[in-house]
C-alpha cells in the first residue's frame, strides 16, 4: 500500500530540462496514467520514481517517507520497462523468480510464488523457455509476472503496451485494469496513447515538454481541458481550435472570428476586446440546414468541407472555417462532400476558451467577480479543476 | 429470393514467359558481381595465407637446410617421427600452456575488473583514461623490449631496486618465463580493456536497472546479470589468448631471451621458428608448423562450439 508524493521534481540533461518542477500526489490504490507525447519526459519521471535516474531537484515521498536518495532496491516498487528488460540468459521461470531470489527467499517459496504468478498470467507452458523464444505479448506478460511476484507497494509501467498489436493491446488493457481492481495497489502507468489513458486511468496527468499541464479524471481532462495543449492532445479527431475575440454586442458577450459568431451570454463588459483561442469538440458541432433561417441568438459557424472520413459508425467532416480546421463528427451519413458549404452551430456551454498567450483555460468567475479569469496554476490532485 | 454473394473474382494472371538464353546469362552475370568485389581480398588471402600453408605442408615431407643451392630431399614422414621423439616438442607445448594461463589474468580478469570499475568514468576523463590504457599497444614490441631489458637489468635495473631483489630476470628459467608473461600482458592489456569496455557498452542499462528494482545488490547485478551478458566478449578474449599468446610473445622472446635460458621461454611458435631459422632444418620446422596449425584449429573449433553453448546474446 503506497501513496506517492512528488514535490518540485526536476531533471535536467545538460541544457535539456526533461522534467520541470512536477508536483503530484498519487493516493494509495490509484491508477495514475502519465500521458504525453514522445519526448515529454514521461520515462524520465518514472525512472526518477524508480530511483534509476537521480533528480536534479525536488523530493519523492513514499507513504510520507522521503525516498529521494534511497537506492532502487529499497523502494518496494516494481517496474515494467518499455523494452521489458527480461534477462536474456535466464528462463522465464528464473526471470519471474529473480526478485525473490535476489531477496534471498527460501527456494520452495520462490518456486511456489513463481508457479502461482505464472498460472495467473497463463505462462505455465512457457516457464522453461528463454526470452528470445517468446512473442512480444508473451514477453510483456513475463515482465508483468516478474513485477507481480513480489507483491510490491506500487507498480511503475513504462509504455508496457506499446509493443503489442492492436487486438492484444485492447485485451491487455482490460486485463491490467482488472489486475489493478483485484490487487488494489498503486499503479503509475506511462503512455502516449490517449485511449489507454482514458480507458484505464483513475486519474490522468498530462505532461508537455516536462511540465504538468493538468491532473484529473478522464472526464475532467476531456470535458474541461486546462490548456490548449490538453485540448488538442486528447480526443480523436483533436478538438478544433481557432483564434477569436470577445466582443460586447447589444448587452451580451459574443465570441467573434471570421465566419464565427457565438453568444456567451451575460453582460461582462470588462472582457470586451479580449483575444481568445476558441475550442469546440467535433461531436459538439451540429449541422444546420442551409435553407433554415438561423435561430436568433444561436451560435453560428460557416465554412467549407475539405475532407470526409468514414469511421464506420460515424463520419468526420473536416471543415475550413476562416483559416482554421474544425472537425465535425456525426452519424453516418452526414450527407456532406468535399467542397460543400456548411453552416454549423453548437451549444455555447460546449465552447472552450483559452488564453492565446499562456494557453491556459479561461473560466468564468461566479457573477460576483464577473470576469473571465486565466487559471494560471497547475492544479494538484486534490484540486482537479482549475480554481 | 436470396442469392449468395460472390467471392472476390479471381484475378487473371498472365504467366511470364521462361527467360531466354541471353536473359539467363545476364542473370548469371549479375550474381557474379558480389564475387568480383570479393576477388581482390580472396586473391591476397590465397597468395599470402593458403599458398604458404600448402607449401608448409609440402615442405614438411622434405629435408632441406634453406640454402637455394642444396637440393630438397624427400623423406616421407621422417620429420614428423623425429618431431615426436624430440623432448623439447612436448616441453614447448607445456610452456605454451603456462604462457596462456599466465596471460589470462591480463586479457580477461584485469580487463573485466578495470572495465567494471571504469564504467563511472565519463566524458573527457574516459577518453584520457582509455588512451593511457591503450598506449602500450602502440609501442613497438621490440622498442618496449629494449626498455624492459634495461628495467630488468640484474644490477642497476629499476625492477630489482623496487623489489629489493637481485634476481637475474632474463637468465633464470622461472623469472624469465614470468618476465615474458608480464611484459606480453602489459602489451595486450589495453586492447583487452577496450574490448571489455565495448562489450559493456553494448549491454542495455535496462537490465541493471530492472535487477536493481528487483532487489539485487550491485554485486548481485554484476554476478547475475552483467557478467553473463558479457560472456560473448569473455569467450572472445579467451579464444584470442589461447590462439595468439605465443605469437604476441614472440618478438619479446626473440629480443629478450632467444627462447632461453635453456629453452625455458621456448613456446611452440618460438620452437618452430628455431627449427627453421636457427637450426636451418626447414622440414622439421614445417612439420611442427603443420602439427600446431592442426592443433590450434581443433582448439579453436572446440572453443567456438563451446561459446555457442555458454554465451547469451542481449537481443
Ligand atoms: N540519458 C539522457 N541523456 C540526455 N537526454 C536525455 C536522457 N534521457 C532522456 N533525455 C531527454 O529528455 C527528454 C525526455 O525524454 P523521455 O523521458 O525519455 O521522454 P518520453 O519517455 O516521454 O518519450 C527528451 O528530450 C530526451 O532526449
Ligand atoms: Mg519513454
Automatic annotation (TrEMBL), chain A:
CDD domains associated with the record: ABC_MalK_N (cd03301)
Region named Disordered: 364-387
GO terms assigned for molecular function: ATP binding
InterPro entries xref list: AAA+_ATPase, ABC_transporter-like_ATP-bd, ABC_transporter-like_CS, ABC_transpr_MalK-like, ABC_transpr_MalK/UgpC-like, Mo/tungstate-bd_C_term_dom, NA-bd_OB-fold, OB_MalK-like
Gene3D superfamilies: 2.40.50.100, Nucleic acid-binding proteins, P-loop containing nucleotide triphosphate hydrolases
Source species, domain of life: Bacteria
UniProt keyword terms in alphabetical order: ATP-binding, Cell membrane, Membrane, Nucleotide-binding, Translocase, Transport
ABC transporter domain sequence ranges: 4-234
ATP-binding as UniProt keyword: yes
Protein name: ABC transporter ATP-binding protein
UniProt source species: Pseudonocardia xinjiangensis
Amino acid at each position: 500500500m503506497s501513496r506517492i508524493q512528488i514535490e518540485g521534481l526536476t531533471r535536467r540533461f545538460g541544457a535539456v530540462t526533461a522534467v520541470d518542477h512536477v508536483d503530484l500526489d498519487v493516493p494509495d490504490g490509484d491508477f495514475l496514467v502519465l500521458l504525453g507525447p514522445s519526448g515529454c519526459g514521461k520515462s524520465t519521471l518514472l525512472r526518477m520514481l524508480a530511483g534509476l535516474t537521480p533528480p536534479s531537484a525536488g523530493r519523492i515521498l513514499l507513504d510520507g517517507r522521503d525516498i529521494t536518495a534511497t537506492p532502487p532496491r529499497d523502494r518496494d516498487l516494481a517496474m515494467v520497462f518499455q523494452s521489458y528488460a527480461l534477462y536474456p540468459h535466464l528462463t522465464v521461470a528464473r526471470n519471474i523468480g529473480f526478485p525473490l531470489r535476489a531477496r534471498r527467499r527460501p527456494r520452495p517459496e520462490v518456486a511456489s510464488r513463481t508457479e502461482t504468478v505464472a498460472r495467473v498470467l497463463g505462462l505455465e507452458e512457457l516457464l522453461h523457455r528463454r526470452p528470445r523464444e517468446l512473442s512480444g505479448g508473451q514477453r510483456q506478460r513475463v515482465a508483468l509476472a516478474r513485477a507481480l511476484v513480489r507483491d510490491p507497494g506500487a507498480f511503475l509501467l513504462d509504455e508496457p503496451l506499446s509493443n503489442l498489436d492492436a487486438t492484444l493491446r485492447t485485451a491487455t488493457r482490460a486485463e491490467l485494469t482488472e489486475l489493478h481492481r483485484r490487487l488494489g495497489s498503486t499503479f503509475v502507468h506511462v503512455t502516449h496513447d490517449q485511449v489507454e489513458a482514458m480507458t484505464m486511468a483513475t486519474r490522468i496527468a498530462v505532461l508537455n515538454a516536462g511540465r504538468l499541464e493538468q491532473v484529473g479524471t478522464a472526464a475532467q481532462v476531456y470535458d474541461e481541458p486546462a490548456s490548449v495543449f490538453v485540448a488538442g492532445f486528447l480526443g480523436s479527431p483533436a478538438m478544433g481550435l481557432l483564434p477569436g475575440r470577445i466582443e460586447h454586442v447589444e448587452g451580451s458577450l459574443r465570441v467573434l472570428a471570421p465566419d464565427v459568431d457565438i453568444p456567451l451570454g451575460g453582460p461582462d463588459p470588462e472582457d470586451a476586446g479580449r483575444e481568445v483561442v476558441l475550442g469546440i469538440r467535433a461531436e459538439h458541432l451540429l449541422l444546420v440546414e442551409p435553407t433554415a433561417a438561423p435561430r436568433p441568438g444561436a451560435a453560428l459557424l460557416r465554412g467549407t468541407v475539405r475532407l470526409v472520413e468514414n469511421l464506420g459508425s460515424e463520419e468526420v467532416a473536416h471543415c475550413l472555417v476562416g483559416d482554421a480546421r474544425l472537425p465535425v463528427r456525426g452519424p453516418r451519413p452526414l450527407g456532406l462532400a468535399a467542397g460543400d458549404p456548411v453552416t454549423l452551430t453548437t451549444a455555447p456551454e460546449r465552447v472552450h476558451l483559452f488564453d492565446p498567450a499562456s494557453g491556459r483555460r479561461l473560466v468564468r468567475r461566479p457573477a460576483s467577480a464577473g470576469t473571465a479569469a486565466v487559471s494560471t496554476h497547475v492544479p494538484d490532485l486534490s484540486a482537479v479543476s482549475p480554481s | 429470393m436470396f442469392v449468395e454473394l460472390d467471392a472476390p473474382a479471381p484475378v487473371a494472371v498472365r504467366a511470364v514467359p521462361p527467360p531466354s538464353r541471353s536473359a539467363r546469362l545476364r542473370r548469371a552475370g549479375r550474381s557474379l558481381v558480389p564475387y568480383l568485389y570479393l576477388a581482390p581480398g580472396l586473391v591476397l588471402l590465397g597468395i599470402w595465407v593458403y599458398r604458404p600453408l600448402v607449401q608448409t605442408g609440402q615442405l614438411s615431407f622434405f629435408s632441406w637446410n634453406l640454402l637455394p643451392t642444396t637440393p630438397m630431399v624427400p623423406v616421407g614422414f621422417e620429420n614428423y617421427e623425429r618431431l615426436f621423439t624430440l623432448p623439447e616438442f612436448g616441453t614447448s607445448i607445456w610452456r605454451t600452456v603456462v604462457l596462456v594461463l599466465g596471460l589470462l589474468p591480463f586479457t580477461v580478469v584485469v580487463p573485466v575488473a578495470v572495465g567494471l570499475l571504469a564504467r563511472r568514468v565519463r566524458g573527457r576523463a574516459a577518453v584520457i583514461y582509455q588512451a593511457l590504457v591503450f598506449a602500450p599497444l602502440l609501442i613497438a614490441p621490440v622498442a618496449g623490449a629494449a626498455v624492459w631489458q634495461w628495467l630488468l637489468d640484474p644490477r642497476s635495473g629499476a625492477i630489482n631496486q623496487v623489489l629489493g631483489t637481485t634476481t637475474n630476470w632474463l637468465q633464470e628459467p622461472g623469472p624469465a618465463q614470468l618476465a615474458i608473461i608480464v611484459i606480453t600482458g602489459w602489451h595486450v592489456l589495453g586492447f583487452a580493456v577496450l574490448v571489455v569496455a565495448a562489450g559493456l557498452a553494448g549491454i542495455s542499462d535496462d537490465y541493471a536497472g530492472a535487477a536493481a528494482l528487483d532487489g539485487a545488490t550491485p554485486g548481485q547485478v554484476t554476478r547475475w546479470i552483467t557478467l553473463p551478458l558479457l560472456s560473448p566478449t569473455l569467450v572472445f578474449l579467451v579464444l584470442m589468448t589461447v590462439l595468439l599468446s605465443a605469437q604476441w610473445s614472440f618478438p619479446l622472446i626473440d629480443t629478450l631471451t632467444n627462447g632461453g635460458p635453456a629453452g625455458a621461454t621456448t613456446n611452440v611458435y618460438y620452437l618452430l621458428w628455431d627449427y627453421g631459422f636457427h637450426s636451418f632444418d626447414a622440414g622439421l620446422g614445417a612439420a611442427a608448423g603443420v602439427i600446431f596449425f592442426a592443433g590450434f584449429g581443433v582448439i579453436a573449433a572446440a572453443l567456438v562450439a563451446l561459446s555457442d553453448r555458454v554465451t547469451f546474446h542481449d537481443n
